[in-house]
Amino acid sequence: MLVDDYAHHPTEIRATLKTARAVGRKRVLTMFQPHRYSRTKALHNEFGSAFDDADRVVVTDVYPANEPPIPGVSGQTIVDEIAKHGHRAASYQPRFERVHCDIGNALDAGDLVLSLGAGNIHEQLSILAADLVIAEKLKAIVGAKGDVRLYEPLSKHTTLRVGGPAQFWVEPRNEAALSELIRFCRRENLPLFVIGRGSNLLVRDGGIRGVVVHPSGGDFDKIDIGGEEITAGVGAKLKEIAYAARAADLGGLEWMEGIPGAVGGALRMNAGAMGAQTFENVVRLHYLDANGQAHTKNRDELEVHYRNVPSLEKNYAVRAVFLGQVAPAEEIVRKLEASQEKRRTSQPKAKSAGCIFKNPEKCPAGKLVDELGLKNSSVGKARVSEVHGNFIVNDGGATATEMLELIDQIKRAAKTKRGIELETEVQIVGESEPDWHL
Ligand code: EPU
Q1: Which atom of ligand 1 is nearest to the CA of 306?
Q2: pLDDT for res 438
Q3: Is 116 left (phi over 0), alpha (psi -120 to 50) or beta?
Q4: CB-based contacts of 21: which residues, under 8 Å, 6+ apart?
Q5: CB atoms < 10 A from the CB of 245, how many?
Q6: Which of 20, 97, 177, 186 is spaced 20 to 30 A from 76 at the CA atom?
Q7: pTM for this predicted structure
Q8: Spatial separation of the C-alpha atoms in residues 173 and 200, rounded to whole Å
Q9: How far is the CA of 417 from the centre of ligand 1 (A)?
């Protein structure tokens, strides 16, 4: 239930919240826009105790109503007072256009959402209302076993740990639901982006507009072995394929052990390690096209390059069949250990997206960055790893903007000092602007 209310004075807020509480919904979530600097300053004490009946409060900046700002008075003033009063779930959101994201991501069935204020906070509630209508439809498509979340932070779903929110985060559990999602997005003109384990992604700080599909669980995580063929859904982890193959005495897939990705991303990017690449093992691919129609193709019918598979640019992989070869157990174990050892000794443990750049023909990118003396160089919390020059690590709380600036600095140095045009291998997606709704 979504309600907009004009309450902006502490007494009004208390009364409105009391009524909201009495409605008997699960929780009361509130977005509050303080009105006027002078009132915020004069009544800051009273505001502190006005929100006791709210389970969660997101406070935006002051709506000035023609007043000039008063230094030191902001939405934070109110949050500090609420916290002082002992309420633990109040937060300040200085970016007005993100208020609905903070509330929407915390939302659960049965909650009541209130927008409180005399300015324009109702706009944030309207956006939430419109997105909830779409979210309900997406829920109907993925069913009870699937999951739909609003404004899910993509920093939680990428190994680099940066990126703004996904407008609609959707987890289908089977091919039929994925196909229906593809058709729904087409019909509704909603952009659709598929994300796997997010280990090769740099999502910009504005997040991703539209539907972000994460095929996982259910059929997508299945791994079946028949003879020398291993069939795996796009949600299955590459590491699990390597170990399922070992258990079945199948060699040739040991290199997958070290890749922190799932099958879907590995197919889209033709991921590789230890001199091997995904499509060297693929024999067949089952995918859905842009109309949600299913197709099965043999390897030789697909266009595949180093770290890029154009056949999957506008199609959506569902599962693939990989071919192993019967091999002695000791040989498989030896190769698995060699892969682990290589990773342990040459790659950082810190949060990263794997290699940032494709290896140019002249020189491996890591070696080039090393020779340029750029290891350990940083922009904010984004830093070139001291272990491997082609890894940028997140030292904690880095932004996509910092990551992109560091990438740019490396590219410029490679071009001017060595005449080499570096190309990113990591996929850079999403919006630079935070206000994709406006
Ligand atoms: N090197 C340096 N300094 C460095 C890093 C590397 O001199 O800071 C040298 C190494 O000594 C080696 C050469 O550069 O002589 C190549 O380095 P490495 O053997 O580590 O392999 P890579 O080409 O950098 C590739 C893949 C990795 C994969 C490894 C291991 C690409 C872009 N990278 O790295 O894939 O894990 O081989 O098999 O093809 C990824 O795709 O995200 C990724 C990490």
Answers
A1: 39
A2: 43
A3: beta
A4: 28, 53
A5: 27
A6: 20
A7: 0.94
A8: 22
A9: 21
